[in-house]
TrEMBL record:
This is Nuclear transport factor 2 family protein. SUPFAM superfamilies: NTF2-like. InterPro entries: NTF2-like_dom_sf, SnoaL-like. Pfam families: SnoaL_2 (PF12680). Residues 4-96 form the SnoaL-like domain.
Amino acid sequence: MHPFRAAVEKDDLAAVEAMLAEDVVFTSPVVFKPYAGRAITAAILRGAKRVFEDFRYVREITGADGRDHALVFEARVGDRAITGCDFLHVDEEGRIDDFMVMVRPLSAAQALAAAMGAEFDRIAQEAAAGA
């Protein structure tokens, strides 16, 4: 089991943040432009934790070189069931330097966009405090 998955499943957000490289790039499933940096990525992940209900990883796939990981998850956003995947790449030090999320179906992605949009002022404040 990837340490990121283990930390998420233990609800250890401090450990999750510690696994992020300072220059991590986070690509959202609902926003065009990626976010750069540990503070904003950690704040987005905390926001997602508040938005997702019944979140659980259901599958894990690791690339041959051990630096690429796909963590498939299921959750709910309001009344919408969502399936998604966290694509992680780790740097030479084992820290996550690239984090991309994809979700389906479209109606769940739209619900996620609305819910995260409602969280974004708080996310921005948390990122500013953590920077």
